[in-house]
Amino acid sequence: MADYVSAVQNGDTQGTPSSVNVIVDGKNETWDIKNDDVELLQFTGLKDANDRDIYIGDILENRKYRSIVKFANGKFLADVVGTISRFDLVGETHGSKVIGNVHENAELLEVD
């Protein structure tokens, strides 16, 4: 995962980037990519209880439950894992902490 990404057009790639400039741990790098290798994550503008940025796809945990950050109906939401409950993310960030994301930590979504 990278903190910052900008696309670079190299040669005839039919409108898709063939490499990206990224910042990882404060260092500039260039990664060669294939079309399916990059997924951009949308920042919600919110921070968790530890002052960590919250992105769509993050998994949050508080004393009561785990939830997945999503965007629907024009706002950021927290979908509670294993239920049909959904909350406005703005009210869910005070006691919640980012513990992973759906791309790298799918095992955190398993319900006991």
Would you spell out the secondary-structure blueprint of this structure?
Blueprint: E1 4-8, E2 19-24, E3 27-32, E4 43-47, E5 53-55, E6 58-61, E7 66-72, E8 75-80, E9 86-88, E10 97-101
Antiparallel strand pairs: 1-2, 2-3, 4-5, 6-7, 6-10, 7-8, 8-9
How would you summarize this macromolecular structure in one to three sentences?
The protein is mostly beta strands and 112 residues long. It is 0% helix and 45% strand. The strands form 3 sheets. Strands 9-8-7-6-10 form a 5-stranded antiparallel beta sheet, with no helix packed on it. A 3-stranded antiparallel beta sheet has the order 1-2-3, with no helix packed on it. Strands 4-5 form a two-stranded antiparallel sheet.
Task: Describe it.
This protein has 112 residues and is mainly beta. It has two domains: 34 residues, no CATH class; 67 residues, Roll (SH3 type barrels), CATH 2.30.30. Helix content is 0%, strand content 45%. The protein is elongated and about 40 Å long. It starts with a strand and ends in an 11-residue tail after the last strand.
Keywords:
112 residues, mainly beta, SH3 type barrels, five-stranded antiparallel sheet, three-stranded antiparallel sheet
> How many strand segments?
10
Shape: elongated
Radius of gyration, in Å, reads 16 Å
End-to-end Cα distance: 29 Å
Strand order of the largest sheet: 9-8-7-6-10
Q: Which class do the helix and strand fractions yield?
A: mainly beta
Q: In CATH's first tier, which class of the largest domain applies?
A: Mainly Beta
* CATH fold naming of the largest domain: SH3 type barrels
- Please indicate the percent range of residues in DSSP E strands (runs of 2 or more): 35-45%
